[in-house]
Write a structure and sequence with these properties.
The protein has helices spanning 18-29, 43-53, 69-79, 94-103, 114-126, 134-142, 151-162, 166-173, 177-191, 196-206; strands at residues 9-14, 34-40, 57-60, 85-89, 107-110, 131-132. The protein is an alpha/beta fold and 213 residues long. The protein folds into two domains: 9-142, 3-Layer(aba) Sandwich (Rossmann fold), CATH 3.40.50; 151-206, Winged helix-like DNA-binding domain superfamily/Winged helix DNA-binding domain (Arc Repressor Mutant, subunit A, Orthogonal Bundle), CATH 1.10.10.10. Strand 4 (85-89), helix 4 and strand 5 (107-110) form a beta-alpha-beta unit. It is elongated.
């Protein structure tokens, strides 16, 4: 049974979907050691409300209008290096998670598992620990020794995802068709893909390419 301090954990929830904020608010309301101090619908609003309330933990969505969560998180941490920010997202990809953790996130929680893991995650982060959703942690562990795609390879796979044969991809990038073929061979090996289509699917799943607008 966890021991609670007199002062509850103060939380700021940042998400552009009102129903998500409402659901998180209901979970928080049911915890004796937590309180919701404010809600923001985008990154810019989050910056203002963070300065106003100085919450113990900020729950930050990644995909939002005006300013996305990654940018907002970096800005908050630049102003307040000790800020504790938990990413709350639909993105399972290891690339998104690694980027968030490198930016300074204290936690990475999937919206699909929020009812099961939210309370434990918040208490862990408040205690100074880092919490990463088990599914994402497993994905990260599988990629530790793997060579990532180079910036040019990311560009190539992005153009391949946009459509067209190697010749069109080469024309759009201003390189030779042979160069595109060479990059694609490397991409297939690094992603463990058998063809271009599977490479694009894997790149989207892992967050190398955005699967959402």
């Amino acid at each position: 049974m966890p021991e609670f301090n007199d002062r509850p954990i103060r939380l700021l929830v940042v998400d552009d979907h009102p129903m998500v904020r409402m659901g998180i608010g209901a979970i928080i309301a049911g915890q004796p050691d937590m309180t919701l101090v404010a809600e923001a619908a985008d990154g810019l609003e989050a910056l203002s409300l963070y300065e106003q309330h100085r919450p113990d933990i900020t729950l930050m969505d990644l995909q939002m209008p005006r300013m996305d969560g990654m940018v907002a998180m970096a800005e908050i941490l630049k102003r307040s290096p000790s800020a504790r920010i938990m990413v709350l997202t639909t993105y399972r990809g290891d690339v998104h998670a690694l980027r968030a953790l490198k930016t300074g996130a204290s936690g990475y929680l999937l919206k699909s598992t929020i009812r099961k893991e939210f309370v434990t995650a918040v208490r862990s982060v408040h205690a100074g620990k880092r919490f990463v959703a088990p599914e994402v942690a497993l994905e990260l562990s599988l990629r530790v020794t793997e060579d990532g795609l180079s910036a040019r390879e990311v560009e190539v796979i992005g153009e391949v995802a946009a459509g067209g044969p190697n010749k069109q991809v080469a024309d759009r990038l201003g390189v030779s068709e042979e160069t595109v073929k060479t990059h694609m061979k490397s991409i297939l090996v690094k992603l463990g893909a058998r063809d271009r289509l599977q490479a694009v699917i894997i790149a989207m799943r892992r967050g190398i390419l955005n699967s959402e607008p």
